Amino acid sequence: xxxxxxxxxxxxxxxxxxxxxxxxxxxxxxxxxxxxxxxxxxxxxxxxxxxxxxxxxxxxxxxxxxxxxxxxxxxxxxxxxxxxxxxxxxxxxxxxxxxxxxxxxxxxxxxxxxxxxxxxxxxxxxxxxxxxxxxxxxxxxxxxxxxxxxxxxxxxxxxxxxxxxxxxxxxxxxxxxxxxxxxxxxxxxxxxxxxxxxxxxxxxxxxxxxxxxxxxxxxxxxxxxxxxxxxxxxxxxxxxxxxxxxxxxxxxxxxxxx
Length: 258
Prior knowledge:
41% helix
C-alpha cells in the first residue's frame, strides 16, 4: 500500500439532522467499517447533537472522569467512543464536531503525531481564514493564543482511520466543572473563569454564529480536497441504530473501564 493524497479520493459530505449521542458513536464505527471495506468513499461527517453529552475516550475510567450524579442532574448522557483521548463536554448549540473516515493509505507510514497533524491541517487553515492564529498541539489538541479550541481522537479499524474533532464554539464552564472530575481537579484552585480561558470558545474569537463557522469549515475542506454532498444510507443507519442500542447505549460498554 502506497500513501495517497487527499485529492486522490472522492470525498463525500454527510451533514444531517441532530442525532442522539449513542447513535453518533455507532455511526462512527459503521461508516469507518464501510470505508475500510471499500463500500463507501472517504467521508467527512459533520455532527449535529440532539442532546447534551459527555463523550469519554475508549480507555478512560468512567468513575474518574465523570460525576454521575451531576450528569443526571443536568440531563447529560455519558457515552464512550471507540477512540482514545480525553473526555469531551458537549452541548448542542455550543459544540462543533466532525469525523473523517478515510483509508489508512492517507496516513501510510506516518507516526501518530504526524497523522494527527496531517488530518487537522485543513482545520488550521480554515481557522486562520477566520482570523484565529491556531496551531496543532501534540498529541491531539488544536490551540490558540486564547486557549485550547479543539480536541481530536483517532482509531484504526480494518483498512480505515477514524479521525474526529470536537471544537468549543461556546461553553458553560460552571456546568462543565460540575460534570467533569478531571477539569474540576485541574481548575479547582483557579475557579470557573480560568476554565473559560483554558478552553477558549470560537464564539469569542470570531464573533460569528455557529452555523457560519461550520459553513466555512465545510467550504474550506471542499476547496482544498473536493467534497460531494451525500447522506447516510438506509442500511448504514439501520446498522448504526442497532449498534447504538446494543453497544453504545449500554452500561456494559459505557462502564467498561469503571
